[in-house]
Design goal:
heterotrimer, A mainly alpha (about 290), B alpha/beta (about 260), C mainly alpha (about 450), B: about 260 residues, alpha/beta, Rossmann fold, 2 domains, 4-stranded antiparallel β-sheet, 10 strands, C: about 450 residues, mainly alpha, two-stranded antiparallel ribbon, 24 helices
């Protein structure tokens, strides 16, 4: 029972990070109907930027801020230079382009920072808390991660549901023509989706970097986890992304705890495959599928 | 329904078909028949559910109630790609041609259900696979000639004027030598000269083939159809010969304010 | 040309067979007349081409962007390794085992895997399929850790290739492997084939055990992602085979009993040339099948389903069936390529078949031209040649390794984006100017 509780608690922090990554995927999907497979590449890159800042200044929080700013810029650049010019007609092209960006970002990061895994510092302790004389698997840093995730989700919720920007984004996501007619600058809203996703991804990267080492492709596996969570959550739903992100984290934590870490990818794959088997279009699809 | 209908041999019919989509009743107890060897029209204002009837008949959509009967037998779980082998061909709204393929390749694919060679024979370029394709190509060329598109055989659909594309689509539907042809708005986007051609072509198919036509264009419908069904808001409001339908008060009422009635 | 081919049944076979044999003859001549080191690159290019013919069909013609083909290559590689190591006679038939049987079984394994993945994948639209196959690329290779006794776990399996005179493949025990001089990649990069004979008795096939860096072994989450240090750097291990096989390049042929066999074979027909001849033969056979499929009815069916599944169904094509068949064909090709790669590396391991390999295949086929088989071949050459080009340039300019090692991937990534944006037909499309033909267009929106 003890171990179960430990694995369970440990899963929350992991889940929080997966949830944020999934959120980033969902934000881009909602704005431009593209699954951004480069998202973890962006998160990795901005984490390196953050790490550089931490190394230079010694300030963890400044590293986070700069990483978020870098995430926004990177999202904007990718949107304008790559995704916007991709012809809508070429649906394979958009997917392939995101992988191109992923490969390029990983190579660029390796060029700048080298390929060796680097340790990212934590703002608070990353060793188990002692409760009643026993060390449990949850650390102050885990709690920090969970709190950070909750705060970020709250901010996002407010921005997306209570501000003009958020409402415009939603309008242009669900009905671009109508939104355009009512004066929303739809193309700006697409860009906003990429920027916000880039920022959320950057936070996710900085939060996860201390728990996994940071190297140009050490986040690859999170792409699978986050995609799984986002798809199960419906790919269109922010609530779904958060819920199933945390759920995926918990499940994988139990899998890792009871068997071994290398099973996580396989379990995520099985989860994803089962979900897609029963809901091939994901839950998002409001339009009736053209079944042939 | 005010008319007694000559439905002695409906080759294709819907019986009490009802379709509901997200709370809306799209089709309500629709029973229409297509007599063998006739040109039957299905008309109605926009949104009446005409294309939905087609979609039910061709298996795109399963009805919530009712059934489709083809040659007297109930069609359960119609699989769209099986239709041509059963003798039913359908055109799509617009043209529905494959943009990456030439006109000839498009038309040849219309005979897909007649090709018996499998992927293995194809991978090994076995002579019988080629022979099947050669026969199909000869057949395609005949049909293309009939429709006056043979000279465009090696071009891509996007290089052709729209009316020619529509003729290619007709040729593709005809290449499988269907018993029943379902035409979804064949006159859409073509001018009166082409329309006359179209009427002539459709009339030339009967009585060897049976035609069901969904069409907005009244003139064409009145010219070529032997029997017309009128749908409004998912219900059959009239059915009969062109003269009867033309003068039916319910039909006139349904079309009042419907600018599109031409 | 097409007219000619349909004029007489069988002429398509004759023409394609003649072209294939001609290409095979040219490549074989080339293989015999170049340095063994270049033969090795030729082998790699032929292996990539084999897999990428399948990518042309899957990604290009049938429009299904898949990253799973690296994992499918693993299926082929492992089936080849296991069957050649464990079986001495063909089950049921009872005839003696040889490498051809292993290839056949590898292909069979690919077909089965293709049916399984295709049955799920054909139901999915673009981004879902890409995500699922991404999961496959990352998840499937971790299966080796579930069956360490059978599949060798992280260490992978070594195999001795059925090199002439060398007998049938057999396993080297891990212990023997451990005794052999562990090779240091950076060090070995300096060595080329000239150094071979002196080393051949002692240095062994690749130091597969070293594929896992300590850091990776420790960090839990990514242990599915076994990578060589170079791969960890680059993300796309296009150079991983290079490195691993630069090690094997040192070996003429070292069966367990060592020097005698090597001496018996002599050094005039070196391992690399033999490997290249296998790779070329397989690539030509696969290329022959691919050109038949692409030029025939099946090619049209795939394109029709890609561009408009509804219209395809209406004309009598089962869209799901067509999509699954594209998966099966491409997995067959991938598995055969994987079996060839196993023979080139004389080793199979999760690290050799990771996400990076899948991405390489995608990059290659996109750059070369995703709609044409010639594009796949061009892409295959590009995957092998670009790193060498960068290496040469960097050697002249004196760039640090960190730049040199990653420049090819940066180029790949950027080129992929440029190609998608400016020339969807890739190099082949740009050259032939015919990419208007192959642009997939938006399927009709109505209904």
């Amino acid at each position: 029972m003890d171990t179960f509780v430990n694995f369970f608690l440990g899963g929350f922090a992991n889940g929080a990070v997966i949830a944020l990554m999934a959120l980033a995927l969902v934000l881009v999907w909602r704005s431009s109907r593209v699954v951004n497979f480069a998202q973890v590449g962006q998160a990795m890159f901005t984490s390196f930027v953050g790490l550089t800042v931490v190394d230079l200044t010694g300030s963890w929080i400044l590293g986070l801020v700069i990483a978020i700013a870098a995430g926004a810029v990177l999202g904007l650049i990718i949107h304008f230079l790559v995704m916007r010019p991709v012809r809508r007609a070429d649906s394979s092209g958009a997917i392939i382009a995101t992988f191109g960006v992923l490969i390029a970002l990983q190579a660029l990061a390796a060029m700048i920072w080298g390929g060796d895994p680097r340790a990212y510092p934590t703002p608070v302790s990353y060793s188990g808390i002692t409760v009643f004389g026993r060390v449990i698997a949850i650390t102050p840093y885990d709690i920090f991660v969970i709190v950070a995730m909750v705060i970020l989700v709250l901010i996002l919720t407010i921005v997306l549901t209570r501000t003009k920007l958020g409402l415009s984004m939603r309008a242009s996501a669900f009905n671009p023509e109508v939104a355009r007619l009512s004066g929303v600058r739809v193309s700006r809203m697409l860009a906003a989706g990429w920027i916000i996703a880039g920022m959320v991804g950057a936070v996710a990267g900085v939060l996860v970097a201390p728990t996994a080492t940071l190297s140009p492709n050490s986040f690859d596996i999170f792409l699978v986890f986050a995609f799984t969570a986002a798809v199960i959550g419906g790919l269109d739903s922010l609530v779904g992304a958060v819920t199933f992100g945390i759920g995926t984290g918990l499940l994988l934590s139990l899998v890792t705890g009871y068997s071994d870490a290398s099973n996580a990818a396989l379990v995520a794959l099985i989860l994803l495959a089962l979900n897609l088997w029963f809901k091939p279009e994901g839950a998002f699809n409001h339009h009736k599928a053209r079944s042939v | 329904m005010p008319y007694v209908l000559p439905l002695t041999h409906p080759v294709l019919e819907t019986v009490g078909v009802t379709v509901r989509l997200s709370g809306l009743t799209i089709l309500d107890d629709v029973s229409i028949g297509v007599p063998r060897g006739s040109v039957t029209g299905l008309i109605g204002p926009n949104g009446a559910g005409k294309t939905t009837v087609f979609n039910v008949m061709t298996g795109f959509l399963a009805p919530d109630e009712g059934m489709v009967r083809y040659e007297g037998r109930r069609l359960k779980h119609v699989r769209t790609h099986r239709l041509t082998s059963m003798g039913i061909a359908r055109t799509l709204q617009g043209v529905g041609l494959f943009p990456a393929l030439t006109v000839e390749e498009n038309v040849m694919l219309g005979g897909s259900s007649h090709v018996r060679s499998g992927i293995v024979a194809d991978a090994l370029a076995m002579p019988w696979a080629d022979a099947g394709q050669r026969r199909l190509r000869e057949r395609a060329r005949e049909v293309m000639e009939e429709f006056g598109v043979l000279e465009d055989a090696q071009r891509r659909p996007s290089e052709l004027p729209y009316p020619v594309q529509k003729r290619v689509a007709l040729a593709r539907a005809l290449v499988s030598d269907p018993k029943v042809i379902l035409l979804d708005e064949p006159a859409g986007g073509i001018d009166s000269g082409d329309m006359a051609d179209l009427a002539r072509i459709i009339s030339s198919w009967v009585p060897q083939r049976t035609v069901l036509l969904v069409e907005h264009h009244m003139e064409l419908v009145m010219n070529v159809c032997d029997l017309i069904w009128v749908l409004d808001a998912g219900k059959v409001i009239a059915g009969g010969s062109p003269e009867l339908v033309r003068n039916d008060p319910a039909v006139i009422a349904a079309y009042l304010g419907e600018e599109d009635a031409h | 040309m097409r007219d000619l081919m349909l004029r007489a049944p069988g002429s398509r076979f004759a023409i394609h067979a003649a072209v294939t044999v001609a290409i095979w003859a040219v490549l074989t001549w080339l293989n015999g007349s170049i340095e063994p080191q270049l033969s090795y690159y030729l082998a790699l290019a032929a292996m990539y081409a084999t897999a990428m013919f399948g990518m042309t069909i899957l990604v290009g013609l049938s429009g299904q962007v898949s990253l799973g083909n690296g994992a499918l290559m693993a299926v082929g590689g492992y089936v080849f390794a296991l069957t050649s190591m464990k079986w001495s006679t063909v089950p049921i038939i009872g005839v003696p085992w040889n490498a051809v049987w292993s290839m056949v079984f590898a292909g069979l394994g690919g077909v089965i895997a293709g049916v399984l993945i295709g049955a799920l994948g054909a139901r999915l639209r673009g981004p879902y399929l890409a995500g699922l196959t991404l999961g496959i690329a990352v998840g499937i290779p971790t299966i080796v850790n579930r069956f360490p006794a059978l599949l060798g776990g992280d260490e992978g399996l070594k195999l001795i290739v059925p090199y002439p005179e060398g007998g049938y493949p057999e396993a080297i025990s891990q212990q023997e492997a451990a005794e052999q001089v562990p090779a240091d990649d950076a060090f070995l990069d300096e060595f080329l084939v000239e150094e071979l004979p002196a080393d051949s008795a002692t240095s062994a096939p690749a130091d597969s055990g070293d594929l896992l860096t300590p850091e990776e072994a420790v960090s839990g989450v990514e242990s599915g992602d076994l990578l060589t240090p170079e791969e960890a750097v680059s993300g796309v291990p296009t150079d991983a085979p290079t490195d691993a096989a630069t090690d094997t390049a040192l070996v003429v042929d070292v069966p367990a009993d060592g020097v005698d066999a090597a001496a018996a074979v002599g050094s005039d027909f070196v391992l690399q040339q033999w490997q290249a001849s296998v790779a070329i033969a397989v690539a030509c056979i696969v290329g022959f099948l691919a050109i038949n499929l692409v030029s025939g009815r099946q090619g049209r069916v795939w394109q029709a389903v890609r561009d408009d599944p509804v219209a395809a169904a209406v004309v009598g094509i089962a869209p799901a069936g067509a999509k699954v068949s594209a998966f099966v064909v491409s997995s067959l090709f991938a598995a055969l390529a994987g079996a060839v790669l196993a023979q080139i590396l004389t080793f199979v391991g999760a690290g050799a078949f990771g996400l990076g390999l899948s991405l390489s295949l995608l990059v290659g086929v996109v750059l070369g031209g995703r709609m044409s088989l010639a594009g796949a071949a061009i892409g295959a050459v590009l995957l092998v040649w670009l790193p060498e080009l960068v290496d040469t340039v960097s050697g002249d300019r004196g760039w640090p390794d960190q730049i040199t090692n990653n420049a090819p991937n940066l180029l790949y990534g950027l080129l992929v984006v440029v190609v998608v944006l400016l020339a969807p037909g890739g190099i082949m499309g740009a050259v032939s100017g015919g990419w208007a033909r192959v642009r997939p267009q938006r399927a009709r929106e109505t209904r």
